Amino acid sequence: MQVRGLTKTFPVATSLLERWRGGPRRAVQALTDVHLSVRRGETLGIVGESGCGKSTLARCLVRLYDPDEGSVRYGGEEVTALRGAALRAYNRRVQMIFQDPYSSLNPRMSVGQVLREALSVHRMRPPAEQEARVQELLTLVGLPQSAAGRLPHEFSGGQRQRIGIARALALEPECLIADELVSALDVSVQAQVVNLLLELQERLDLTVLFVAHDLRLVQHLSHRVAVMYLGRVVEVADTAQVFGAPRHPYTQALLAAAPSLDPARRTAAPALQGELPSPLNIPSGCAFRTRCPQAFARCAEERPALQPLPEGGEVACHLYSPVTSGAAPGQLDKVTP
Ligand code: SF4
Fold first, then answer.
1. Per the database entry, which stretches of residues form a coiled coil (predicted)?
2. Which of 200, 216, 236, 315 lies at 20 to 30 Å from 131 by C-alpha?
3. DSSP H helical segments within the chain, as ranges?
């Protein structure tokens, strides 16, 4: 999957008085010029504080939202242009699993009915073979065969996530997009669901996009990690590189805020300072400049683009980009918000 220049805004409702006064239409800038690629069979972790746009990105990738600009290509096909049967076929190949599967499960349908419905609607199996497939799916996600006859409310949070995963797997997808899959679960249950996902990924050769704010989980699961801040990807690299030698000041601050038990991985970078700016009013230039301890004049004037690093990975920060004008990296004249 290749994402290029993806941008998404949401208009903000304005009062009648504001409209009458002719005030400007306001919009939340949820994604700005996002570039990303996901390789077949890998797990890409997408991480950032809440409100950084990671869930909006996930929803754009499965076309729950239509982006304002940019391109998403999957297997060479332009996803943003898909309509009708072609879009349904894409949605079968790329499945999303949500944080709360309970809200998307019909409370009056047994788990068996939910899975059979998925198999029938997408014509995955003829009716005579559906029962056997339901049993197969339950085994695959570690639920007992008796689960087929029970209603969603009879299951715990972790078991419901397993039902959600089974429903996604019923369509034999190539790619799973897991949006905050385990954030509502207890830590011990989180580990079980995450391990299940790892096992399934390897066994079924799935491509996984794992969207989460928990760095621990992302580190455990992902081959590569993309770090997002205020709707932009600021760093993307192999997991070992992001966690072992983070380059972007925001990644360094995120890691400093979640210290590792491993002394070798501790970072001396200061933890995050200040509040996350409103997505209605994103700072000019680098969106992180109002919280960045290394900001300099150029950061307010020019938005840093993702640049490849010599050691691999990419980073969007003027400390690593060629100087085009004005102040140079190292001129640490801190910019006021
Ligand atoms: Fe900090 Fe400037 Fe880099 Fe942004 S571009 S992260 S403000 S040094």
1. none
2. 200
3. 16-20, 54-61, 84-93, 111-121, 127-140, 157-169, 187-204, 215-221, 239-244, 249-257, 297-301
